Amino acid sequence: MDRQEEKTQIITNPSGRELKEHGSYRFPFLVSRERLSRYETGSFLWHWHTEIEFTLVTDGCMIYQINDSSISLNEGDALFGNSGTLHSAHRADEGDCRYISITFSPRLLYGYEGSLLQEKYVEPLIHNSGLAFLHFHGKDFFHGKENYYGKESFNSEESWHGAVIEGLRHITAVYEEKKPLYELRLQEELLHIWRLMLEHCCLDKACNSNGRDEKNYERIRRMITFIQENYQQKLELEDIARHVHLCKSECCRIFKRYMKESLFDYLLKYRIEQSLPDILAGEESLTEIALHSGFADSNYFSKVFHRLKGCSPRDYRKKIYHFKSVPEKSDPEKEIPWTTI
């Protein structure tokens, strides 16, 4: 039997920006094969990054949340996520979801700062809050599954959807094979996909930027930053609202509208996620961990933990150590905190 792997989660800085390197400065481009089962509870947390990201679902389905939209991505579908957008995702059902993530810096499209390509074809899109994403439908626009990946099977009306999806698959193959000149081939394919988006929809949508939405997303980022910097303290709604210069009701309304969850629920989820390293270390009592994570007492902490993770903190630790095939610590001093709570 295959050993189950340790779970992971998106690592961000206090502003919610992902810390993962997407390639290098010399070639800011990364392709990675992912699956939602690798993440805690089958989902990755809200985060953002300046890189552009394409997501291509290869098996299963997911619910992808980006800014204030929720998109159902099925096998064969792809999604363009714009630079700087807040996004998260979770499994659509009990099954796993496998997908390919393609992330790259906009610099690969325009070359150097101040270029005509940057000014005319890239910045109008990546700075447009009205264009957070594009959903490319896969199977819906193909005549037959047997020709699913062949260009000859594209429906003429939406052939550009298929062309983008085919381009993403080609990018993945080129990146993984790494044959001579592969960097040039990757850039060539990216420019082709970008041109398709410009030709078919983005030039019109680029004129529809909503300044109010842009301001609200900036407020949400500031709320997230404030929570992540102060989650260990006693936080009142009034504190968060004051930080973004809003009344309490408007603060809650904006967060709920765009993030599809309440501000309080986000705070609880973040506190639980931050408690996981201490739980796995097993060096503090549950009461100490609860207090360090911003909870007033261990009983409420355990209740919220069970609701979000489906088990108690103690059982969670046992499960993770079982996945890692690492025996539980036998030091009785380390076991005292976990048997007396």
Give a verbal description of the structure.
By secondary structure, the chain is an alpha+beta fold. Helices cover 45% and strands 15% of the residues. It is built from 12 helices and 9 strands. Strands 1-8-3-6-9 form a 5-stranded antiparallel β-sheet, covered by helices on one side. Strands 2-7-4-5 form a 4-stranded antiparallel β-sheet, with no helix packed on it. Strand 4 (62-66) and strand 5 form a beta hairpin. The longest helix is centred in the middle third of the chain and has 24 residues, at 182-205. It is globular. The protein starts with 28 loop residues before the first strand and ends with a helix. InterPro entries: AraC-bd, Homeodomain-like_sf, HTH_AraC, RmlC-like_jellyroll, RmlC_Cupin_sf, Tscrpt_reg_AraC-type_HTH. Residues 221-319 form the HTH araC/xylS-type domain. This is AraC family transcriptional regulator.
Secondary-structure map:
Layout: E1 29-35, E2 43-47, E3 52-59, E4 62-66, E5 69-73, E6 78-81, E7 87-91, E8 98-104, H1 107-110, H2 116-126, E9 133-136, H3 159-177, H4 182-205, H5 211-230, H6 237-243, H7 248-259, H8 263-281, H9 286-292, H10 298-309, H11 313-323, H12 332-339
Antiparallel strand pairs: 1-8, 2-7, 3-6, 3-8, 4-5, 4-7, 6-9
Helix pairs in contact: 3-4, 6-7, 9-10
